[in-house]
Design brief:
Number of domains: 2
Keywords: Membrane, Transmembrane, Transmembrane helix
Pfam families: DMT_YdcZ
Protein name: DMT family transporter
Structural class: mainly alpha
Order of helices and strands: HHHHH
Helix content: over 70%
Largest sheet: none
Number of strands: 0
Number of helices: 5
Oligomer: single chain
GO cellular component, one term: plasma membrane
InterPro entries: YdcZ (IPR006750)
Length: 148
Amino acid sequence: MMKLVYTAIALAIGMGFAVQTSINANLAKGLGSSLVAALTSFGVGFAMLSVLALVTGQLQAVSGFKHLPAWVWFSGGILGAFIVFFSLFLVPRIGVAALAAFIIAGQLTAAALIDHFGFLGVPVHELHVWRVVGLVLLFAGALLVRMT
């Protein structure tokens, strides 16, 4: 039962990405700046997460950060900023469907390499022929979405 719930949540996140990207693209168009729209999105997200962390009492977890290397502190936020900014930049140029298709193909390619080599401390799941075939088909699908 929980697998079904988790799958539904993951599907909702994917749908939310398309909706969020579209909303933020409208924000960028209205503001005349993808960068300011991304900044606004991150600012609102920061405020929302701050309230949630405060309400749930999870701000105590901050003490654990002092033992982490600096790159762990900053890399996720930096990558997130680039992802949001370039998503806003690309939506009016290639569309939400093509953007999502290439993002998914890119995510799965990176995920397969991370799994195969055990990067970033994840357990090794070797790359085999069916994963490669799946990745090739995903990329081909993304190209087809972009061509239409």
